[in-house]
Design goal:
The protein is α+β, with helices and mostly antiparallel strands. It has 2 domains: 142 residues, no CATH class; 113 residues, no CATH class. Helices cover 44% and strands 16% of the residues. A hairpin with a 4-residue loop joins strand 6 and strand 7. Helix 1 runs antiparallel to helix 2 and helix 1 runs parallel beside helix 8.
């Protein structure tokens, strides 16, 4: 089953709540899924006015959405950075480092009223697994932090992102075939088929999401899932040169998919307004 990162779901659904396209309860269910209820915490400089002071105490996602609305948030954006590719990260360095380690973050569009006055805000999820193989569980804490003013989003349209995905997938397929990575473990065929034929869960994106944005998000998620499968095994790349070439190819493909996914999720804010279901 394909899916979106938690930050992508929070950005898409949180924006839909803020502009009236979705109910907070539906957003919380879509973001949290089977995790334990998500906690929210942050430093003293990340407190939002109207919540009772700084975010030093742990809050939950419903409280976060309410606080953002009271603080004047217009919407949320997702950023999906990777080592060597900090695209979209605004700073400061500590926030960027946390986001790079997580591989994802959420930025609040525009200034909001923080405890120390107007400023910019971001959130990074910290994910912790617990339990056993038979009964696994996941705890998530969203760490809030004041950020520098976000950089202007990349001037990439959904059409550009869709074309880039098609090109990247074709190039990756050729590169992986050249490196003979089709000879994966015995269970790989079923997993590849699931990635190839699967779609996003119905609640991955909120109601009113533009059809093209949803399509690009699903395609990007599929490409990233293929890359994730490929990097689990060296396949038949027996030489150091082959391994390096394969890693570079997969890294480039994943970069295209990450950027396309961010474009799709952030474009969903501009979708026509719909009544919450």
């Amino acid at each position: 089953m394909l899916d979106l990162p938690r930050s992508a779901r929070l950005a898409a659904w949180g924006s839909a709540v803020l502009d009236g396209r979705a109910r907070a309860a539906d957003a919380v269910r879509a973001v949290v899924r089977d995790d334990e209820p998500h906690a929210v915490g942050g430093g003293a400089d990340a407190g939002l006015d109207g919540v009772g002071g700084p975010f030093a105490a742990v809050l939950d996602v419903p409280d976060l959405l309410t606080a953002l609305e009271r603080a004047g948030a217009r919407g949320l954006r997702v950023v999906l950075p990777a080592p060597g590719d900090p695209s979209g990260l605004p700073g400061p360095a500590a926030f960027n480092a946390d986001a790079l380690e997580a591989g994802e973050a959420v930025l609040v569009d525009g200034e909001v009223l923080l405890h120390a006055g107007p400023g910019h805000l971001g959130a990074v999820p910290a994910v912790e697994g617990f339990g056993s193989v038979l009964e696994p569980g996941t705890r998530v804490t969203w760490h809030l932090a004041a950020t520098a003013p976000p950089r202007a989003p990349e001037a990439t349209s959904l059409a550009d992102a869709e074309r880039s995905l098609r090109t990247a997938l074709a190039e990756a397929t050729r590169a992986l075939a050249d490196l003979d990575v089709a000879r994966w473990r015995e269970d790989a065929a079923d997993r590849v088929a699931a990635v190839r034929d699967g779609g996003l869960p119905r609640d991955a994106l909120p109601p009113g999401t533009d059809g093209r944005a949803a399509r690009v998000a699903a395609s990007a998620a599929r490409v990233r899932a293929v890359v994730a499968l490929a990097v689990e095994d060296d396949g038949a790349a027996v030489s150091g040169y082959e391994a390096v070439a394969r890693a570079r190819s997969l890294r480039d493909v994943d970069a295209v998919a990450r950027r396309a996914l961010a474009v799709a999720v952030n474009a969903a804010r501009a979708s026509p307004r719909a009544e919450p279901r």
